[in-house]
């Protein structure tokens, strides 16, 4: 059984949806970051970085980094078809975009939401925040340009990259996303409305 440590509205939503879509046997453990539970010694024993998500594998080992979890689950449950075969050109593109989202959009959102952690100048947080938001928007535009006929990033079949994108886009202003990135907005809606994802979305995010 997999054990997912996460908090509402965090990057653990994508991993939870990936577990559900993969057909994995899993349980979730809520770590209330608002109450500082991720900073406690008990959770540090799970993830020394004191961040969610963290995923305990069936053998008892623990992995961190949500994008890595998505790739692990894609291969551990390959029959679910949530990523192309390892070593294929299609898989190279899938992994490229998944990591693109992780190192650019996810990282940019951290700077936007936790701008005080990225400057020693107490008066500079607003500049960090606005710069990060523009950075995130620019990278969403790149994904928009990469989407073809859809509805998903690689056509008719949803992938781990689409699930990851749904999670990230849930942190964005929906009106901006719809106006600036209509194809991406439709992709996110298609993921959000999937029967196994919809209840996870409702549990993690305010809007239905």
From TrEMBL:
Family matches, as InterPro entries: Glutathione-S-Trfase_C-like, Glutathione-S-Trfase_C_sf, Glutathione_S-Trfase, Glutathione_S-Trfase_N, Thioredoxin-like_sf
Start and end residues of each GST N-terminal domain: 1-81
Alphabetical UniProt keywords: Transferase
Domain GST C-terminal positions: 87-208
PROSITE patterns reported in the protein's UniProt record: GST_CTER, GST_NTER
Domain of life: Bacteria
Gene Ontology molecular functions: transferase activity
Transmembrane regions: none
Protein name per its UniProtKB record: Glutathione S-transferase family protein
Organism in which the protein naturally occurs: Metarhizobium album
């Amino acid at each position: 059984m997999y054990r997912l440590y996460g908090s509402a509205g965090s990057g653990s939503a994508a991993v939870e949806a990936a577990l559900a879509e993969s057909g994995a046997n899993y349980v979730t453990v809520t770590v209330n970051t608002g109450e500082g539970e991720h900073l406690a010694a008990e959770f540090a024993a799970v993830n020394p970085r004191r961040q969610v998500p963290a995923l305990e594998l069936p053998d008892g080992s623990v992995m961190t980094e949500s994008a890595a979890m998505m790739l692990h689950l894609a291969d551990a449950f390959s029959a679910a078809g949530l990523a192309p075969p390892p070593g294929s050109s299609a898989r190279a593109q899938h992994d490229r975009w998944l990591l693109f989202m992780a190192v650019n959009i996810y990282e940019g959102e951290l700077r936007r939401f936790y701008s005080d952690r990225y400057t020693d100048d107490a008066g500079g947080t607003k500049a960090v925040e606005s710069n990060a938001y523009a950075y995130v928007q620019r990278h969403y535009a790149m994904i928009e340009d990469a989407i073809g006929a859809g509805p998903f990033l690689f056509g008719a079949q949803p992938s781990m990259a689409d699930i990851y994108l749904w999670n990230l886009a849930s942190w964005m202003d929906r009106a901006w996303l719809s106006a600036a990135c209509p194809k991406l907005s439709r992709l996110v809606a298609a993921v959000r409305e999937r029967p196994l994802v919809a209840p996870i979305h409702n549990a993690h995010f305010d809007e239905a």
